[in-house]
Each structure stands twice: as structure tokens, then as C-alpha cells.
Amino acid sequence: MPQRRDARRNREAILEAARELFAESGDVAMYEVARRAGVGQATLYRNFPDRDALIAALSLEWLDNLERVGAERAGDPDGFFVLLRAIVESQAQFHGLVDCAKEPSALASELELAQQRLAQLIAGALRDAKSAALVRDDLSLEDVFLVMAMVEGALSREADAAGRRVAAARVLALALDGLSPA
Fold first, then answer.
1. Could you read off the pLDDT of 97-130 as tens digits, one per residue?
2. CA within 20 to 30 Å of 18's CA: 1, 10, 40, 53, which one?
3. How far apart are CA 130 and CA 137, in angstroms?
4. In this structure, how many other beta carbons lie within 10 angstroms of the beta carbon of residue 28?
């Protein structure tokens, strides 16, 4: 059954408020999301029964966006670099959300499936880049996740969004030098 227009608008307002808040910090209370979205707590909880459900929705939205980037560049050897940049930019933009996704919660199985989807996405792009000799032959999927962890480590040292963007760009630039064939 399709949602009413006002219900869709409320849901989108909640997601937008959550995106903004989680971009600032991982320490986001549900009442803050409702207040920022301009909806009552009942509306918030009708859409997202708990904080984990909201984090899952945002995480899956993030992954869907990355899959769109991957699909747009499928078969393109440079697609790996476009995808990696998109991942790093997302890490910088949604640093608080990434922190929450690492916390133990009822989301573990959903987030594990999301991690598997992300791994498949990266693996395909990496395979294309290797075939075109754009990256080192010995570069593995685990290495790409290591780069993501390095970015996350650099981001955790930055207090604001601007600093996180600069740190993410610097780590990516350094990592890309290491990913290139000798």
C-alpha cells in the first residue's frame, strides 16, 4: 500500500535530519532527530522503531548510493578509483554513522549483509582496474578495506566536517600512490 504524501514527506524529513546529525557525530538521540525533522516522537518511532532501525536505513541508503556509482562505472577500469573516492567522501561526510555501524547492536546481521554487498561492489571494480593494469597486481580486497580503515583512523582525529574532508582527501592521495603499479 503506497504511503500518503505527508507520511513520505515526514519520513524524508526524518532521514534528512538524521543525515545531518550523524554527519556531525555518532552520539545522536532520537528526540534530536525528531526535533530537527520537525515531527513528533510518535511519527519518528512509527517510521523507525528504534535508533538501530534508523542507522540501518541510513547505512542501506549509503550503500545504495555507492552501488549506483558502481553501476554507472561498471566495466570502466577507472571505476575503481571513482568508487574509492565516493567511499572515502562518504566516510568523511557520514563519520558519525560509520562509528555507529561499528557498535554491537541488533543490526549485526543487516550490517554484515551490507558489508558483503560493499565487498562485492569493490571486488568487481578492483578486478576491472587490475585487468587494465591501473593498480598493483598484489592489491587485494582486504587492502582496500585497510585503506578505508586508515581513512577512518584519520577522521577520528578531526573535530569538524571541514577537517574530516581534508584528512580524508590526504589519506586517499597517499593511499592512491601506494595502490598504483610500480
1. 776 766 656 666 777 888 899 999 999 999 999 9
2. 1
3. 6
4. 22
What's the pLDDT tens digit per position in 46-57?
Answer: 999 998 889 889
Q: CB-based contacts of 174: which residues, under 8 Å, 6+ apart?
A: none
What three-state secondary structure class fits 140?
A: coil
Q: Is 9 helix (H, G, I), strand (E, B) or coil?
A: helix
At residue 85, the 3 state secondary structure works out as helix
pLDDT per residue over 12-52, tens digit each?
A: 999 999 999 988 888 889 999 999 999 999 999 999 999 88
State the cell numbers at 157. 582525529
Q: Tell me the C-alpha distance between 137 and 181, whole Å.
A: 7
Distance CA 73, CA 81 (A): 10
CA 34 to CA 89: how far, in whole Å?
Answer: 26
Rounded Cα gap, residues 114 and 108, in angstroms = 10
Give the cell for residue 86: 565516493
How many C-alpha atoms does 182 have within 13 Å on its Cβ side? 2
Q: Residues near 70 by Cβ (< 8 Å), separated by ≥ 6?
A: 79, 83, 121, 124, 125
